[in-house]
Amino acid sequence: MRQAHSGLLAIDVLGSAAVAVCVLVSAWLFFVRADEASASLRTLTGQVSDARRDLASIGRIMAEQQARLVRKRGHLESTGQLPTQTPIESYSQEVLELAARHELRVIRQIPVEAKTYPGLIEQRYSYEMTGTTGNILDFLIAIEESSFWADIGYLRLEDGTKSRQDKIARRKASFTVSLFSAPSGDTPSEETG
After folding, report:
1. How far is residue 116's CA from residue 178's CA, in Å, rounded to a whole number?
2. Across residues 160-168, what is the average pLDDT?
3. Fewer beta carbons within 10 angstroms: which end of the chain, N or C?
């Protein structure tokens, strides 16, 4: 009977040890792992908060880009289209005013036959002017940056004469100015992109 009693006692000791281990594991999971879980929860909450801030920032950037796109489209609609008629007189007058502003003397201005392309008219003028090299270059840059659609071609610079009164040599510039417009009745096609 003692043997049976010691067997039961051994089973009780093993059962008690198993229960103690389970209680310790449960306590460890409850207390230690709870701290890790709450730390993970705090980290996750911080990441969600950061993601919300990033999303709000992206939304603001997208709104700014949309507004910029609207402004660019408006600018292109108002300035990016070819004129439907070539105001020849006003363009020629502007070219002559630019020449005077850059201290150039106009020797000759000759209209050249207009060329027509699909959706485009090119009216050309041949010019001869004299002035200093710097003034000629400034004038050519001003033509390229002018508000009307113009292009310079067939440029030739020749050495000029230096008079006794002039301390700087003047040069002769020969070139054509092409003024562009859309044919009347046609509307320019919009670029997509």
Report:
1. 12
2. 64
3. C
Query: For the domain with range 88-181, which CATH number is right: 3.40.50.300, 3.40.605.10, 3.30.70.60, 2.40.50.140?
Result: 3.30.70.60
Residue boundaries of the structural domains of the chain: 1-80, 88-181
**Enclosing H/E stretch for 45:** helix 2-79
By three-state DSSP, how is residue 112 classified? strand
Using an 8 Å Cβ cutoff, are 138 and 90 in contact? no
Under the banding of pLDDT at 50, 70 and 90, the label for residue 80 is low
Q: Which residues contact 88 (CB under 8 A, 6 or more apart)?
A: 111, 123, 179
H helical segments located in 80-178: 88-101, 133-144
Residue 82 — pLDDT band, cuts 50, 70, 90? low
